[in-house]
Amino acid sequence: MVFENSLAFAEKQDSLDPLAKFRNEFYFPQHKGQDKLYFTGNSLGLQPKEAKSALNQELDDWAKYGVDGHFEAQNPWFSYHERFKDKLGQVVGANAEEVTIMGGLTANLHFLMVSFFRPQGKRCKILCEGKAFPSDQYALESQLKFHGLDPKRNLIELFPRDGEHHLREEDILEAIAQNGDEIALIMIGGVNYYTGQVMPMESITKAGHKVGAIVGFDCAHAAGNIGLKLHDWGVDFGAWCSYKYLNSGPGSTAGIFVHERHAKKTDLPRFAGWWGTPPEDRFLMKPGFEADYGADGWQLSNAPVLAMAVQDVALDLYLKAGRPNLLEKQKNLTAYLAFTLEEVSKKHTKVNFEIITPKERGSQLSILTHGSGKELFNYLTEHGVVADWREPNVIRLAPVPMYNSFADVYGLGELIDKALN
Ligand SMILES: *Cc1c(COP(=O)(O)O)cnc(C)c1O
């Protein structure tokens, strides 16, 4: 596509966009009576307008049935989580039995590592990306300590080469090969939250398996953003939150993936709870835990239906828009943002910023600002842009294909231009 930095061009693209109508399915925060230019769908996705009625349905059934809602509600709560398996499978590229909806992301990472980080003998280390999302760093460090291991010696963190902003695939693969017989677990963010880099998940998985390691990905910035194929890539496990690109609301229920090859290993060590038993046993209150088949066997608690009700409508919108359409629009919209930023940057030689996101990317572009980045960011905020600032000097922008428009992107470029003047 040949881009033009003009409102006419942006509006033309919007008029041709088959997903344009989905914008109207979401509430936009307002600035002076107009939609804000919302570029933080990578942090908290917008609220689907349908969320309230879905939530009310469950509140009404709770009022009407009390405890009997477990079986009598329009969407019985006892089996409520089951409606997500097929939908989530489509989002992350997995079979229905390989995914389930439960708890929160960091907690789920811990539960999965209880099963999949099993240090033994020489094989005690975890390999991850340097500057991982802090919660992941804390989770990995505390898992190591939990096994009596010193994180300083057992956490292998990979950093970009000097002067570079993201990891090279060849360097990741070499680090895996070099440390092969010492790595118990590779746990990396599928899309880096800071740079927006999409990791080569398939080749990392292959390389990890070749040396005998387990491979898991934190898909917080990947789920609903890029075209995941967790099953086909052979990934052992994955976890994600639903409030970023999946628009399910602040702190809403997270998701897990466990590859089919582990589905029948009911003897894998795990921290168990009653919802992890087969559904027919769940209310029998028998002594002795027996794990359900597949990802469901990692569930602990009964389903948080109120949060899930919102996720249900959010996922329906995702599937209605269609993954191929979303990925296609994403490519164009993010490329248009990159183009617009470059056009603006060319006009202002004194002030500069650079895009540090590599071409392996999803929706997000991270801009490293030199000089007065914080002033630029503040100007944008005052003028109705919602972006996000990461210390020391990065602005993250994510035009998301579900509800952002080409006109949003053009509008942002125009404001940056004004700010630099
Ligand atoms: C957003 C995000 C989290 C947040 O974890 P919660 O447990 O949902 O608070 C963790 N890790 C990564 C990589 C994230 O992007």
* Main sheet makeup: 7 strands, mixed
Estimate nothing, just give the exact number of structural domains: 2
The first-to-last residue Cα distance is 29 Å
Computed over alpha carbons, the radius of gyration is: 22 Å
Helicity range of the residues? 25-40%
Task: Specify the CATH architecture of the largest domain.
Answer: 3-Layer(aba) Sandwich
Structural summary, described in words:
With 421 residues, this protein is an alpha/beta fold. It folds into two domains: 7-47 and 322-420, Aspartate Aminotransferase, domain 1 (Alpha-Beta Complex); 54-321, Aspartate Aminotransferase, domain 2. Helices cover 37% and strands 15% of the residues. The chain contains 14 helices and 17 strands. It has helices at residues 7-16, 51-65, 69-72, 85-92, 105-116, 134-146, 151-154, 169-178, 201-210, 230-233, 305-321, 323-347, 373-382, 406-420; strands at residues 26-27, 30-31, 34-35, 37-38, 47-48, 99-102, 125-129, 155-158, 183-189, 214-218, 237-240, 254-258, 352-355, 365-370, 385-386, 388-390, 394-397. A seven-stranded mixed β-sheet has the order 6-12-11-10-9-7-8, sandwiched between helices. It has a four-stranded antiparallel β-sheet with strand order 13-14-17-16. Strand 16 (388-390) and strand 17 form a beta hairpin. It starts with 6 loop residues before the first helix and ends with a helix.
Secondary structure blueprint with pairings:
Layout (H helix, E strand, L loop, with lengths): L6 H10 L9 E2 L2 E2 L2 E2 L1 E2 L8 E2 L2 H15 L3 H4 L12 H8 L6 E4 L2 H12 L8 E5 L4 H13 L4 H4 E4 L10 H10 L4 E7 L11 H10 L3 E5 L11 H4 L3 E4 L13 E5 L46 H17 L1 H25 L4 E4 L9 E6 L2 H10 L2 E2 L1 E3 L3 E4 L8 H15 L1
Parallel strand pairs: 4-15, 7-8, 7-9, 9-10, 10-11
Antiparallel strand pairs: 1-5, 2-3, 6-12, 11-12, 13-14, 14-17, 16-17
